[in-house]
Design brief:
Layout: H1 2-28, H2 34-39, H3 45-54, H4 61-73, H5 87-122, H6 127-141, H7 144-158, H8 174-208, H9 211-218, H10 223-234, H11 237-251, H12 255-260, H13 266-275, H14 279-307, H15 310-315
Helix pairs in contact: 1-14, 5-6, 5-8, 5-11, 6-8, 7-8, 8-10, 8-11, 9-10, 11-14, 13-14
Length: 318
């Protein structure tokens, strides 16, 4: 297993290097002068040129890249043109917001997906199965921005149960924190539950068809033990993989939901960086999001190997 993890880490480093290379050169060749965007239309050509030189944009691209890569290896993501702050500090401020709604959304989606997915597989072609498949379709088809607007109008403006915008830190008010992340988390959960529910249902159906399920029934085990100990354990691998990837995606930033609910998270930072062509901030965010996805991908693979030791033999080619 250690050798597998080491190989995965090597592969991850190659992926991160490739992403850094592509990100840097693609962003640098996009039309537009960052110095002009920062100073505005009233700036004189001399002011723009001075800032252009001060930002190091007059150097050849390869020099700019290796300088940025050297800083990146020291965990220095640079300073944002727009905010005038360290990109690392900006990410540190925005990350708790995104993580909060991502964690709550995945808890909601995971609990509902496993509950409905298991019942749907066990009671195939029943009403609960029809209901679960309807949830799959709705969760996949309905856009998040539309759900968010409906929730804002109904729960925020009409019922006035939850705030329609803003974020309250846990340290400031626990109840305010829960209220501020409830609607965004539910909207995110609805967007993720369709895929996860489909995977749980199909995995459970496959698990129920295995020979060891017949053996468990012959032994006279209770239905609860058969489904929870044998069927569910055999059906965990695919859902865990999906959960890891979904959480990595959410933790990397949720632009639409954070914009609708005016949350100062990673997604809003990405949107600001794109709007103002803040190359340094955008490069740092891309590397952070990529690193998050790579980390969770590695973590999920390790967890799966611990759950199903037979995968170790496959990785060794046995």
């Amino acid at each position: 297993m250690l050798r597998y993890v080491i190989n995965r880490i090597k592969g991850s480093i190659i992926v991160l290097f490739a992403v850094s290379l592509i990100t840097f050169f693609v962003l640098m060749i996009i039309p537009g002068n960052p110095a002009q965007l920062i100073l505005g239309t009233d700036a004189t050509p001399e002011m723009v040129e001075d800032l252009h030189v001060a930002m190091g944009l007059d150097k050849p691209l390869y020099q700019q890249y290796f300088g940025w890569l050297s800083s990146l290896l020291r965990l220095d993501l640079g300073t944002s043109y727009v905010y005038g702050e360290s990109v690392t500090a900006l990410i540190a401020k925005a990350l708790p917001v995104t993580l909060s709604i991502a964690v709550f959304a995945m808890i909601i989606a995971t609990v509902l997906a496993f509950l409905l997915g298991m019942l749907s597989a066990v009671k195939k072609n029943s009403f609960i199965d029809f209901f679960s498949r309807s949830i799959m379709q709705l969760g996949t088809a309905i856009p998040s921005f539309w759900i968010g607007m409906v929730f804002i109008v109904f729960f925020g403006l009409r019922l006035k149960i939850f705030p329609i915008s803003g974020y309250v830190p846990m340290s400031q008010s626990p109840s305010g924190f829960i209220k501020s992340i409830t609607l965004p988390s539910i909207v995110l959960a609805i967007g993720e539950i369709g895929t996860l529910l489909r995977i749980v249902r199909s995995s459970m159906l496959d698990s129920l068809k295995q020979d060891y399920m017949d053996m468990a029934k012959i032994k006279g085990l209770s239905s609860w033990k058969i489904y929870m100990k044998y069927a569910l354990r055999g059906a965990l691998i695919a859902p865990i993989t999906i959960i890891g990837m979904q959480f990595a995606k959410l933790a990397g930033g949720t632009v639409v939901v954070e914009t609708i609910f005016a949350l100062p998270g990673i997604g809003r930072l990405v949107l600001t960086a794109v709007e103002h062509r803040d190359i340094v901030l955008l490069q740092g965010l891309v590397m952070f999001i990529t690193s998050t996805v790579v980390f969770f991908s590695l973590a999920v693979d390790v967890i799966i190997m611990l759950i199903n030791p037979r995968i170790k033999s496959v990785e060794r080619g046995e």
